[in-house]
Write the structure tokens for this entry.
Amino acid sequence: MKNGNWVFWTFGLGSVIFMGVTLYFNYKYAVDLGTERQGLFGDMFGASNALFTGLSFVGVIIAILLQRQELKLQRKELELTRNEMELTREEFIAQNETSRVQRFENTFFQMLSLFNTITGSIRVDSGRDHYDEGKSAINQILSELEYKATQHCSTTQYCSKHKVNSYDSAKTKFKHLELEDLQEIYQKKYEEYNDILGHYFRTFYHIIKLIDSSDIKDKQQYASIARSQLSNAEQVLLFYNCLHANGEKKFKPLVEDYALLNNLNPKQLLSAHITSFYAEKAFGSN
């Protein structure tokens, strides 16, 4: 018996017992009366009928109250059920979110692993039957690019255009570099190492593109992880690559949005003024 119902049940049961006892004693009393007096007693029994009618009405009220109590309990049960369903829904959403992040991270770290494998497989002839590999090969390519820039800035056309002397230092000449100059210098070196640089930068681009096109939270954190894979020389080479036609339209905006040039030392560039070819956000808090 549920709490609170015992009062109704006790009252109802008491009423039934009371009616039963009353009927019994009325019947017993009527039997003991004579025939002539039984009719008169029957008329008096009408008062008992009114009493029983009243008790029946009380029983109806009790039934209504009991039903009301049951409905109240049902509402509580429905509320508990809704709460349980809401908790289940939240758990499902959390599990789905965890599963989605895990799928993204599996792809992300597999691509990082592939990128590092590609970097490690780079092999460049540095002369005298010696080959640089991996990040050392990137350093060699960058050194050759800087040498190519020195040659470019020593041409009569360049010196005449920017009014510099051919015997001025390379640093002095680099101060006049324009975007078109950098694109021309990089293009010559890119043609020489097309297979290496093309594969290398396409892979890194797709890693950043994966982050950008996903709906995960804190994309910057994953972009920082990707950026941490780059050496100083690789960041400098990334700088030049995204000024080139190969990366200017698609890759350069991502470099700026995710501050992939953060921690880049301007002194490592041909000239500090060329940082103006990028939006300031590309360098993060640098």
